Amino acid sequence: MLKKKYILSLDGGGVRTIATITFLQKLEVALGVPLAEKFDYFIGTSAGAISCLGLAINKMSAVELMEIWSKKNLEKIMTNSSWETHLGIMQMKPKYTNEGKRSVLAEFFEPKKIGDAFKPVAATSYDIEKRTPVLLTSYNDPELSAVDIGDATSAAPVYYPTAEVGDRFLIDGGIVANHPVLHGFVEAKKLFPNNELVVLSVGTGLNKRSLKGKDSTKWGLIGWVMHDLFGLMVESSMDHELAEELIGKNYLRINSPLGKVNRRLDDNSDSNIERIEAMGESWWELFGDESLKLLSE
User: Fold this and answer.
1) What is the arithmetic mean of pLDDT over 288-292?
2) Exposed (0-12), middle (13-18) or buried (19+): which is 116, by Cβ within 10 Å?
């Protein structure tokens, strides 16, 4: 019988990543084993990638992961730039600077490099000059700063400026793989060719609010931005459907429609955070038993 290797895949989703971590907190308690010890490979996109760095580099518990996304840190991460409407025309600058985000990342990761990870970890990104997806990993890019990687994987267009990492200009991995499970599965097969792979994938909620098709025929840049263009791009379910077919019984996806959670990735109001936490708790009720069964030896 092949020995099992466990993969944890975490989606991007801005503040909605709090639901992911809420679920992981309950999972860690139920397992009785730190997530950093239980899983053998970590892959994430954007906020999910930052959490994966915390697990793989710092061996953080799920409770400690939530500290990254505290109210105080969210306010730093969302430091406003000159985003405003002037005479009905939206200025063409990112909504936020990346200074506050980098300061929070530095608090948790400076001066560590991704190669300091004690288990393999990967973060998705996208090179805008080469027009190609990028997977930043502890085994291929060990000298890259963990702060730079966290900045790059979460450099969501419209929200944050492009990140400079060495001679590359990188943006949020959600552009190509907000749900990075297939990338993680393929990478893990290379690293663990003689093992049975088991994959737990945790999302950040799905926006199922219908848009008006007739109205959308008239939308230009501003219209699509106002209707959450980036959110539409990152919420495809195709990766999940492919993973179900490819991985089968060794794969479990944790996710649900957003319900009353704001679809916007940056609503850090107290009321919305409460709804996000409640969504994460509902996932444990829905998927807790399945998760424990999947992760049992």
Assistant:
1) 96
2) middle
